[in-house]
Amino acid sequence: DYYGANSSGYVIRNGVVYRDTVRENSNNGDLAIYKDGSFKIIYEDQISAEQLVNDGVINLLAFGPALVENGE
């Protein structure tokens, strides 16, 4: 997770939004981890940090690019 190396980009830990600015390279996906244990790749320029938490995201990891997306 590269959140500490960047001055922008969502930071969500344990369901709390600590930073809600879209990261500069939003082409790289973030790994969203949901309450039910499921994972999903999201793109910060397509959804707000608040909406992610409302949708059940408890942790968000910024790394990218996605290696597997939609099962492929």
TrEMBL record:
Alphabetical list of InterPro entries matching this protein: NAGPA
Domain Phosphodiester glycosidase: 6-72
Pfam families, A to Z: NAGPA
Protein name: Exopolysaccharide biosynthesis protein
Native organism: human gut metagenome
